[in-house]
Design goal:
Structural class: alpha+beta
Strand order of the largest sheet: 1-2-3
Distance between the termini: 42 Å
Helix content: 40-55%
Order of helices and strands: EEEHH
Strand content: 25-35%
Largest sheet: 3 strands, antiparallel
Number of domains: 1
Shape: flat
Mean pLDDT: 89
């Protein structure tokens, strides 16, 4: 797998492109992002988000959503 960060200086949008080569051909996935190139490099080597991570985040947001909404509305 090769990861590319592409940035258009005209429109200022960025894309993360993942190119995967395998015996059956080449696959590519593109994702519009607001990340800078250095962010992509930093996140590239992190562990993937697990199902348990998602459940923990859901529980945290569900349990603290009123407080979070209150704080956001204060701004």
């Amino acid at each position: 797998m090769t990861l590319y960060h592409l940035h258009c200086s005209a429109c200022r949008h960025s894309v993360l492109a993942m190119i995967v080569e395998n015996p059956h051909g080449i696959r590519s996935v593109g994702l519009v992002t607001d990340m800078e190139a250095q962010d992509a490099i930093r996140f590239q080597d992190l562990d993937p988000v697990s199902a348990d991570d998602c459940v923990r985040m859901h529980l945290a947001l569900d349990g603290q959503s009123r407080e979070m909404c209150r704080r956001l509305l204060q701004r």
